[in-house]
Specification:
Layout (H helix, E strand, L loop, with lengths): L11 E5 L4 H12 L3 E6 L2 H13 L3 E6 L5 H15 L4 E4 L14 H28 L3 E6 L12 H21 L4 E8 L5 H9 L4 H6 L12 H12 L10 E4 L17
Parallel strand pairs: 1-2, 1-4, 2-3, 4-5, 5-6, 6-7
Helix pairs in contact: 1-8, 3-4, 4-5
């Protein structure tokens, strides 16, 4: 009987926004599959606790504090990872922020904040990770996108612009970096009820019950979990996806096939 090897054994992978939700699920699953994972987040206590939890479960994990909107912090994250572990094999650009605002409510400051986190951050991380990926002989970048990057959803003009830009950047980099054997892909989670999203909507007066009743992404009968996206990221980071680059991997339970419900609490 063939014994299955861990799918990302001995790979060094950086995950941003890894203190909770999809980022933590990715880090945990990658560690379970043999990777050494560097978790990054702006919340130091939560990030350190997340890395400690993975280590307690037998995984290899390390936390580095980094704000992805800072070029210096992103450079330090990648350089420190490579210095400590000798190389970088993969990157998950997961850190993101998605409050709603109508066009009239979108101030210049709000616009800049959204694009800084959701587009400038992945740009910085790619910029400083790529030299290390190239030195390692290739690797994989997973940019966590959104349905907002490919279709219009209400009151998310800045977020949609950022995620649409991230998709364009993904495809551009996939072509540019292919000669270096660096693959770049765009992962679209569906409606994931993370702790952060539930808390965000609670502040706006939207209850968990209302979230479960409204929105889209239920074509397959349930909301997605962070682990659903983590399985997809694991595939894209593994050698099983050696010929996959510049693609959109939709993990939205068919949400993109359903009509948009105006006013629904879904944010993508």
């Amino acid at each position: 009987m063939r014994t299955r090897k861990p799918r990302v054994e001995n790979k060094i992978i950086v995950v941003t926004g890894a203190a909770q939700g999809i980022g933590f699920a990715c880090a945990q699953m990658l560690a379970d599959e043999g990777a050494t994972v560097v978790l990054s987040d702006i919340r130091q206590a939560d990030g350190e606790a997340a890395a400690a939890r993975i280590a307690a479960e037998g995984g290899k994990a390390h936390f580095i504090l980094a704000d992805v909107t800072s070029e210096t912090a992103c450079a330090n994250l990648m350089n420190e990872t490579a210095r400590h572990y000798g190389r970088i094999d993969g990157l998950v650009n997961n850190a993101g922020w998605y409050p709603r605002a109508t066009l009239e409510e979108t101030t210049t400051e709000f616009w800049d904040q959204i694009l800084n986190v959701n587009l400038r951050g992945p740009f910085y991380c790619c910029k400083f990770a790529v030299p290390h990926l190239r030195a390692a002989g290739g690797g994989s970048i997973v940019n966590v996108g959104s349905l907002n990057g490919i279709q219009a959803l209400p009151n998310l003009v800045a977020y949609g612009a950022a995620k649409g830009g991230l998709l364009s950047m993904t495809r551009t980099l996939a072509g540019a970096l292919a000669p270096d054997r660096i693959r770049v892909n765009y992962l679209i989670p569906g409606w994931v009820l993370t702790e952060g999203e539930i808390a965000l909507h609670a502040k706006n007066g939207v209850s968990l019950e209302a979230l479960k009743k409204g929105g889209q992404g239920l074509a397959l009968g349930r909301h997605q979990t962070p682990e659903d996206s983590a399985y997809a990221a694991l595939y894209l980071l593994s050698d099983e996806a050696a010929q996959v680059t510049g693609t959109i991997l939709n993990v939205d339970a068919g949400g993109s096939c359903l009509p948009i419900q105006p006013g629904a609490p879904y944010v993508g």
